[in-house]
Amino acid sequence: MSSSSQRTLVILDERGAAARLPSQIASLVQGYRIIHLSDTRHAPYGTLSRVSAARLVLLCLDLVRGYGISAVLLASAAAARAALPTVRIGCARAGVALHEGASLVAREVVRRHRFGDVAVLGGEIVDERAVAEALGEAGLPARTRAVPLDLAALGEAGKDALGRLVEAQRAQVGTYVLGSSYAARVADLIRRSDPDAAIVEADAALAAEVAVALEAEPAEGKTASTVIRCATEASEHWQERIAELAGVAPDAVAGRWVMPAGPSEGPFAVAMDEDGDPLD
Question: Which Gene3D superfamilies does the protein's record reference (predicted)?
Answer without folding.
Answer: 3.40.50.1860
